[in-house]
Design goal:
Shape: globular
CATH architecture of the largest domain: Beta Barrel
Largest sheet: 9 strands, mixed
Number of strands: 31
Structural class: mainly beta
Strand content: over 45%
Radius of gyration: 22 Å
Distance between the termini: 43 Å
Length: 372
């Protein structure tokens, strides 16, 4: 069985925009600032008269929120709810019509519920660098080594390779096929990978990561779970997957949000402002210094300390190597990360319908950390 993922045809988009009179705002500059639910992104959007429509996907949220577009001379305020789409025109320099759409990151309910009850399996290899490596086929001929990165979005292909891939593009992983995806270019992936793919490719589905069997299983409905799984709420911070976790140190408990990042080979990465606020590293032994690269290729010198105890729901982990960022977080906001040297110790079921994650310790739970 295959899911076929299709982009909206251009003709359908043109019909959509021609059906009704659309709101119009004016601009004399291509730069647009966006306030997404209270988070301002200054000069982050560039108007494109050629795109019909040019789609801005708001940060994922199941709560209604406001998104504001600010041109240099005008603005528009749009209420975004799950599954919503709002179309308008930005008139650039009085002559160029820029057809724009503000879209919820959550698809309309009818698209999520479409299809029969099914499960599709994608085999993977857990590499020595803790990467979930999947063999993908490009255009029915070429093999791509892609890693599944819960801290990323869509497809990202190494820039040098992406320029050589012919279009229209088809990517197949196991029984699943994506037709005409628009992969972004990247200069950094996990070791020996050609690129990566993110969680949002499976929006509205249930993703099971079974490290014991080295399988990704994509379900249309939540499967029956074996004994030993515990349920936690998933939160989405700027569309990143996060859970709550805490540290115990010297009789004090420090709690925070942790971004699930299977693209990292570390066990944990601690945000610099969070560690400073809680004096998290005080008294902890430094076991290593290291150069860390973010997806943009920016380098950071880091130190790794040994944290005595961490709790995720009712699971306790001990002596966790925690890499501490030396400066501002590369995501642009304060957040801690759980890398795959820690996450691989749990079989996971990620429910993107009800925003829950189910964890169960697996055969890797008591294996040594790489940093140790």
């Amino acid at each position: 069985m295959k899911y076929i993922f299709l982009l909206m045809p251009l003709l359908a988009a043109q019909c959509l925009f021609s059906q009704t009179a659309l709101p119009v705002i004016k601009a004399s500059s291509k730069k647009v600032s966006i306030n997404d639910g209270g988070y301002l992104q200054k000069d982050s959007w560039f108007l494109s008269p050629a795109a019909r429509p040019d789609v801005f996907t708001a940060d994922r949220s199941r709560q209604a929120k406001w998104v504001l577009f600010y041109t240099d001379i005008d603005s528009i305020k749009v209420k975004v709810t799950p599954g919503s789409r709002f179309n308008f025109i930005v008139l650039l320099n009085g002559k160029d019509s820029c057809y724009t759409q503000i879209a919820s990151a959550i698809p309309p309910t009818d698209k999520i519920l479409a299809g029969t009850d099914r499960s599709d399996t994608i085999p993977f290899t857990l590499t020595l660098y803790n990467a979930i490596q999947v063999k993908a086929i490009s255009n029915d001929t070429d093999t791509l080594n892609l890693h599944f990165d819960l801290g990323s979005f869509d497809f990202r292909i190494m820039r040098a390779l992406l320029t050589k891939i012919k279009k229209p593009l088809k990517i197949q992983m196991g029984p699943l096929t994506w037709i005409n995806p628009e992969p972004g270019a990247t200069t950094l992936t996990a070791h020996d990978m050609d690129g990566r793919f993110g969680w949002n490719l499976f929006e509205g589905k249930i993703v099971e990561i079974n490290y014991d069997r080295q399988l990704l299983i994509i379900h249309s409905k939540l499967p029956g779970l074996a004994k030993g799984y515990s349920a936690l709420a998933l939160s989405f911070i700027h569309s990143y997957l996060c859970i709550k976790a805490s540290f115990a140190q010297g009789g004090t408990t420090y709690s925070g949000d942790f971004l699930l990042d299977t693209g990292s080979d570390a066990a944990m990465i601690a945000d610099s402002s969070w560690t400073a606020l809680h004096q998290f590293t005080s008294g902890l032994p430094v076991i290593r210094t290291k150069i860390l690269h973010d997806p943009r290729g920016v380098s950071y010198e880091t130190k790794t300390v040994l944290a005595p105890q961490m709790r995720i729901h009712n699971f306790t982990l001990t002596n966790i190597p925690a890499m501490v960022l030396p400066g501002p977080n590369p995501t642009g906001f304060s957040i801690n990360f759980l890398g795959n040297d820690l996450l691989k110790r749990f079989n996971m079921v990620l429910d993107f319908r009800k925003d829950m994650v189910y964890l169960k310790p697996n055969l890797l739970f008591n294996t040594p950390y790489r940093e140790q």
